[in-house]
Amino acid sequence: MNPKIRDLYKRFLLVGRDYPLGLNHVRKTVKPAFFKNSDLTDPLAIKKAIKRGRWMVREMVGVIQLKKYRTLNSRYTSEDLREKLRDIENRRVVEKIKVSQTTKSDNVDT
């Protein structure tokens, strides 16, 4: 087995420990994918599959980080503060929409 492939599988298992759906889900998903691509012999195709696998690992890490952030945020941010932050963000979005509509109407008039 190619050492890069073995390393990729180990990365999946390592990242899978913290994945929100659990290591068993990751193992059940990843193992068939590896076996499905086990017949690849073209070095370019193998390299492409490894690249896609590494991309998947990075995506999993992003999901894990988002889950941890949301958990910490919900634990340490009061509901009142969250509501105020939502209001501020909503006002910003409304202002952006108004500015873009004004800009569009100015461009149409000229």
From TrEMBL:
Domain of life assignment: Eukaryota
Task: List, alphabetically, the CDD domains matched.
Answer: Complex1_LYR_ETFRF1_LYRM5
List, alphabetically, the InterPro entries matched: Complex1_LYR_dom, Complex1_LYR_ETFRF1_LYRM5, ETFRF1
Domain Complex 1 LYR protein stretches: 7-54
**Pfam families (alphabetical):** Complex1_LYR (PF05347)
Please give a single GO biological process term from the UniProt record: respiratory electron transport chain
| GO CC terms | mitochondrion
Q: What family is this protein classified in? A: Belongs to the complex I LYR family.
The record's section on PANTHER family has: ELECTRON TRANSFER FLAVOPROTEIN REGULATORY FACTOR 1, GROWTH HORMONE-INDUCIBLE SOLUBLE PROTEIN-RELATED
This chain belongs to the protein called Complex 1 LYR protein domain-containing protein
Upper taxonomic lineage = Eukaryota, Sar, Stramenopiles, Oomycota, Peronosporomycetes
